[in-house]
Write a structure and sequence with these properties.
162 residues; alpha/beta; four-stranded parallel β-sheet; 8 strands; elongated
Amino acid sequence: MNMLFDETKISGIPVRNRIIRSATHDGLADENGAPSEKLIAKYESLAKNEVGCIITGYAAVSRNGVSPYPRMMKIFDDGVIDKYKELTDAVHRHGAPVILQIAHCGRQTSSKAIGMQKVAPSNVLHAFYPDKAKVLTESEIHEIISDFVAAAIRAEKAGFDG
């Protein structure tokens, strides 16, 4: 029988126990969307205290997919890779894997907050963000898919385990 503190694997990633830090919005990115020193220290503390695996807060894959919440992480620019590498190195020093949650907020943001027209597959209103989204064209959907791929490649370069 597997127990909470037994080692395991998640999709092939070795995990020292079954305590998982789930993704939350930390609001601790710097002005460029890279992890701040405070965020790196937070994740390092979790790893030092033997959290089995850390899943980061969400990181935007493109400018039009940013959250309305302040200091969201962003990974749509190569300029942030080094700072993310600092984060993964800090976590890995203490034996924990770290997984980057990547996201596009779509209609779950506001045009005012992101400084441009928000986009989504349809213009159905969101209860909390009632401004209408621009309906994505098929080619724009493919662009966002490409943004996810580019973000995953950046995450891999930065040392994320998933």
